[in-house]
């Protein structure tokens, strides 16, 4: 991909809805129709088609017409389907926060080199608690703060899905360590913010943070 094509692809993925559709198509194990993508994201068919076609124009997806396996030939309109172009494009659009993990690990090693992983979890939770306390003191909502940290939160009916891991590259190399620190940071944030309605738990899934925030009933 040339520099110009890469910039075009990045521009196409800046839109959050378009990026979500791109990720959905890339994760699917079959060519995706407009109707399927629209239903998966609660979006109108026309808007979904617009975003998908823009992704095709940018070279991120390719499209063709394909008759469904359960539809007899010659019956009905052949739907347009979309799939990833090649192996997809490795573009870091979501925000990453590697300096935060680096600071936590550096402090942990300096404090307790014999058990740095446990010290790192303590530092991670305290760092999260400090962030949460500032949120509470400023009477801010926690969700926009999570967005500012790069988690890309999406509030669903029973949980908050964190669509992006700010520490993605490190998590792929040291999954248990980084996911544990991620959980500690988020637990500290929720504690510091005084949010008794959210419970962080490890729930790894492709294309998202390893932690999700379950919604608890208000007391």
| Residue fraction in strands | 5-15%
* Share of residues in helices: 40-55%
The low-confidence parts are none
3D shape = elongated
User: What's the helix-strand series?
Assistant: HHEHHEEHHHEEHHEE
Mean pLDDT: 84
**How many angstroms does the end-to-end distance come to?**
54 Å
Q: How many helices does DSSP assign?
A: 9
Rounded radius of gyration (Å): 21 Å
Report the strand count. 7
Structural class: alpha+beta
For the sheet with most strands, the description reads: 4 strands, antiparallel
Instruction: Provide the spatial order of strands within the biggest beta sheet.
Output: 4-5-7-6
Task: Provide a descriptive summary of the structure in words.
A hairpin with an 8-residue loop joins strand 6 and strand 7. This protein has nine helices and seven strands, in the order H-H-E-H-H-E-E-H-H-H-E-E-H-H-E-E. The protein is α+β, with helices and mostly antiparallel strands. It has a four-stranded antiparallel β-sheet, with helices on one face. It has a three-stranded antiparallel β-sheet with strand order 1-3-2. The chain is elongated. Helix 5 packs across helix 6 (about 115-135). The mean pLDDT is about 85. About 50% of the residues lie in helices and about 15% in strands.
Report a brief summary of the structure.
With 219 residues, the protein is of the alpha+beta class. 52% of the residues lie in helices and 13% in strands.
């Amino acid at each position: 991909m040339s520099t110009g094509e890469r910039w075009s692809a990045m521009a196409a993925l800046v839109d959050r809805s378009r990026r979500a559709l791109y990720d959905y198509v890339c994760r699917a194990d079959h060519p995706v129709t407009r109707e399927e993508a629209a239903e998966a994201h609660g979006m109108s068919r026309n808007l979904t088609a617009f975003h998908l076609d823009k992704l095709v124009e940018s070279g991120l997806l390719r499209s063709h017409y394909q008759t469904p396996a359960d539809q007899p030939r010659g019956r009905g309109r052949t739907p347009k389907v979309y799939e990833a172009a090649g192996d997809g494009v490795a573009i870091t659009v979501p925000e990453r926060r590697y300096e935060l993990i680096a600071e936590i690990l550096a402090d942990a090693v300096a404090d307790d080199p014999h058990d740095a992983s446990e010290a790192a979890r303590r530092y991670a939770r305290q760092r999260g608690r400090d962030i949460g306390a500032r949120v509470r003191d400023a009477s801010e909502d926690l969700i926009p703060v999570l967005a500012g940290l790069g988690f890309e939160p999406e509030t669903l009916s029973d949980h908050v899905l964190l669509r992006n891991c700010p520490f993605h590259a490190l998590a792929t190399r040291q999954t248990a360590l980084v996911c544990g620190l991620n959980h500690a940071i988020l637990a500290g944030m929720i504690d510091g913010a005084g949010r008794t309605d959210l419970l962080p738990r490890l729930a790894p899934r492709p294309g998202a943070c390893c932690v999700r925030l379950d919604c608890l009933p208000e007391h």
